[in-house]
Specification:
Length: 382
């Protein structure tokens, strides 16, 4: 594999730091050209000292001064508005987008327009602007490779296959910390309980999304755009052990699955090495001691976020962007302890019912609908 020059957006987060662990294992295969963080300037400064990138970006401008010394001789950008510049640097081959939420969309679009390989962890990019991104991909030489574990599993199952031969995608879901809770028990769950994912150690936003199962809804939309598959052909299934990361059933009745321990380093390295593979020093499954692999149907009544997400893609237009913005606001309000857990789907549902938008879909109007939805989602359920 030719040495790749990387821009890592969100290098201080869960995906960002795991990516840097992979790069430490393969200094001959990867060179870090750019790193970015939002406010964690101390960790960013350590990363800059270790990886010596040509470009460093800190979103929170009040910390630019703190980073100046450590970046001397290299370029320091201050403010989130510069993220798309980082995503389209001429001497970068691959942009790993590990930003969280809608904040990642502009960078995904910029990287695609600049013809990069985009290793996409930021699923919200495809949720809000899947149509725009797909159109841009057709016009450029860019590649969009998923980092998300389920979509990496799908890609691994589909490599060497024709998309026309897919009968169904089975997307697995852990069920989160509240899989066995009743609807009544869900009324009183705390932030601490919701942040305690049974299998994965991830950033706060996605961990809450996993607990409401909105994460699975977002991932169904993500799979729809990545593999050009109608939503009714994507079946979510609960698999509490998170060993099977997803499956494809083909038109002849055969199914392929991708399995492994719940470890994001595996899909991250695959997104960087695809279609090749690189060795990775990380724990392996012990199949002699493998636990039972079990499956259950999704309870759409208990976890309405999955249904809301699937319906939003059927509605089309701005509906997935409204769903996403309302969910981001609701999750943050829950984390701030301003609302109860069960208010998260309520805020999403009310936003989808109340916000109407007829303008044509483009990156600018997407910004406006995102803004309007956030104002509404913050104003309800006090
Ligand atoms: N974590 C995981 O295992 C998985 C994550 N994903 C997806 O990957 C993405 C990243 O998730 P994760 O790593 O968990 O998230 P984290 O919250 O751990 O990290 C987010 C990163 O983005 C930066 N950031 C946060 N907000 C902004 C903003 N508004 N503008 C610019 N930078 C920002 C953070 O900087 P700072 O540290 O300074 O705040 C941090 O570097 C998400 O879309 C998630 O859904 C998908 C599959 C698995
Ligand atoms: C690791 C990863 O890809 C997460 O998106 C994971 O899927 C979360 O688990 P559940 O949403 O299945 O609980
Ligand atoms: Mn996932």
């Amino acid at each position: 594999m030719k040495k790749q020059k990387l821009a890592i957006l969100g290098s201080t987060g869960s995906i960002g730091t795991q990516s840097l662990e992979i790069i430490r294992q393969h200094p001959d295969k990867f060179e870090v050209i750019a790193l970015s963080a939002n406010s964690n300037w101390k960790l960013l400064a350590e990363q800059v000292k270790e990886f010596n990138p040509e470009f460093t970006l800190i979103g929170d401008e009040s910390h630019a001064k703190d980073l100046e010394k450590v970046c001397s001789g290299a370029t320091l950008l201050s403010g989130k508005k510069h993220l798309p510049e980082l995503a389209s640097l001429e001497n970068v081959d691959t942009v790993l987008n590990a930003l969280v939420g809608y904040s990642g969309f502009d960078s995904t679009l910029a990287a695609i327009k600049a013809g990069k390989r985009v290793a996409l962890a930021n699923k919200e990019s495809l949720v809000v602007g899947g149509e725009i991104i797909t159109e841009e991909l057709k016009k450029s030489n860019a590649e969009l490779i998923p980092v998300d574990s389920e979509h990496s599993a799908m890609l691994q199952c589909l490599t060497g296959e024709s998309l026309d031969n897919i009968e169904k995608i089975i997307i697995t879901a852990s069920g989160g910390p509240f899989r066995t809770f009743t609807k009544e028990q869900l009324q009183n769950v705390t932030v601490e309980q919701a942040l305690n994912h049974p299998n994965w150690d991830m950033g706060a936003k996605i961990t809450i999304d996993s607990s409401t199962m909105m994460n699975k809804g977002l991932e169904i939309i993500e799979a729809h755009w990545l593999f050009d598959i109608p939503v009714h052909k994507i079946q979510p299934v609960i698999h509490p052990q998170s060993i099977i990361h997803s499956m494809i059933t083909f038109i002849d009745g055969s199914s392929k699955a991708q399995l492994g321990l719940p470890d994001m380093k595996v899909p991250i390295i695959y997104s960087l090495s695809y279609p090749e593979r690189l060795d990775l020093d990380t724990p392996r499954m012990n199949w002699n001691e493998a636990q039972n692999l079990t499956f259950e149907p999704v309870d759409f009544d208990k976890f309405p976020c999955v249904r809301l997400a699937m319906e939003s893609i059927e509605t089309g237009g701005y509906a997935p962007a409204i769903l996403n913005a309302a969910n981001e606001v609701a999750v943050q309000r829950f984390l701030n302890k301003e609302i109860g857990y069960i208010h998260i789907p309520e805020i999403v549902e009310k936003s989808l019912a109340n916000i109407d938008w007829n303008d044509s879909l483009n990156a600018e109007t997407l910004k406006e609908i995102d803004k309007e939805t956030r104002v509404f989602a913050k104003s309800i359920i006090k």
